[in-house]
Amino acid sequence: MSENIFVSRTNPIVKSIYTADPAPMVYGDTLYLYTTHDEDELVNDFYTMNDWRCFSTKDMVNWTDHGRIFSLDDIEWADARAWAPQCIERNGKFYLYCPVHKKDGGMAIAVGVADKPEGPFKDLGYPLVDEGDWNDIDPTVFIDDDGQAYLYFGNPELRYVLLNEDMISYDEKVGVVKIPMTEESFAKGSHMTGTTYGEGPWFYKRDGLYYMVYAAFAEGKNRNEHLAYSTSTSPTGPWVYGGVLMSEEEGGIFTNHPGICDFKGHSYLFYHTGDLPGGSLFHRSVCVAEFKYNEDGSISTVPMCDNIEEV
Ligand code: FUB
């Protein structure tokens, strides 16, 4: 692993490579930002993504690039699509949940385990979630106050499993639970589920309210993704649609992908755009915007921004 220091006062945060699918994790006094990596050279004119990257900062401006922290080379049973991850700490170990394409076909969720937030991560040797369909992508993980951990995931449906204390297995009796895709939960949207829910869920709790932020499709054909959110008073729903978090018009490329955290008294929405030179739907870049919650916990639409303030 190589480490580089860089300063970034403007979006996109990383300007040396294409990064996407931001997943922030605050640990101690440091914000770790896990991302995917869009390769410069495309294979079959599709997302060409082979590894996961990690960057860290203590002030949002001075960053350490920890390089490649986990890759398809580390996952013997996978052959492509190192897609949107999320990392969490439990009992001193770090768990990186990663969607991948299996050598024998279909998407599944891998888990990398490490002793440090910046890895290196070691694969379990088998998929954690493997339903044999496209839906097993974009895992988001959260440990509730009572110790129960949840792994939500899914495209085009939102599903979850109850993780066991070991974080590398789940309650098989409960199995994979499908969230009802209703307009009350996710608003009227694309033909895929009839709702705006698309993919890229980001699950967390704040002041007793559970949030599900996600990449969303409005009604109609050929739409780019926007970001939206729903809330619930329980970790398993029912979810109530909250509104648009980042508009489709601002994104300008097919995907967007949310990652949210509070850090040093500030609330941040990470997202991605095609804004670096050479940017495209397959050459994306991670950005960040600060926002504030409204008094009732709702979030108003967050504008994309150019500048990043030091904290
Ligand atoms: O980056 C590959 C895929 O595109 C992610 O898994 C989705 O969320 C979308 O960003």
Structure description:
By secondary structure, the protein is mostly beta strands. It has one domain (4-291): Glycosyl hydrolase domain, family 43 (Tachylectin-2, Chain A, 5 Propeller). It is built from two helices and 21 strands. A hairpin with a 4-residue loop joins strand 4 and strand 5. It is globular and about 45 Å long. The protein binds beta-L-arabinofuranose. Beta-L-arabinofuranose is lined by residues 20-21, 36, 47, 83-84, 99, 137-138, 199-200, 215, 255, 257. The record marks 138 as: Important for catalytic activity, responsible for pKa modulation of the active site Glu and correct orientation of both the proton donor and substrate. It comes from Butyrivibrio fibrisolvens DSM 3071.
> What compounds are bound to the protein?
beta-L-arabinofuranose
Q: Tell me the number of structural domains.
A: 1
- Poorly predicted runs: none
Distance between the termini: 28 Å
Query: What percent of the residues sit in helical stretches (DSSP H or I)?
Result: under 10%
Mean pLDDT value: 97
CATH topology: Tachylectin-2, Chain A
Largest sheet: 5 strands, antiparallel
Give the CATH H-level superfamily.
Glycosyl hydrolase domain, family 43
Pfam family, one: Glyco_hydro_43
Keywords: Carbohydrate metabolism, Glycosidase, Hydrolase, Polysaccharide degradation, Xylan degradation
Family: Belongs to the glycosyl hydrolase 43 family.
GO molecular function: hydrolase activity, hydrolyzing O-glycosyl compounds
